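Let us practice reading a record.
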Amino acid sequence: MLDLVKPVSMDEESNYSEKLALAIDAGLSMEEKIKPEPPTYSYEDAMNRLMKAVDNSITEKSAKILLVWNRIHHNNFSTVYF
């Protein structure tokens, strides 16, 4: 748009703002549909992944504390670890 000689002309009956609003709403609803769920892990899997990620440089007690901080309660599961 910046490279044009003048702004794009619209006639009064084109309803450009309404069409733009509909296009934005459609784009946002499509974005919501394709938004993936974050990965979920059981407590054991989360503990193993955490210990592997830090190359066992923390104690198991520290890892348990970190997992408590990062747990999220999900409707379909009792507790989910991200």
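A brief commentary: Residues 11 and 17 are 12 Å apart (CA to CA).
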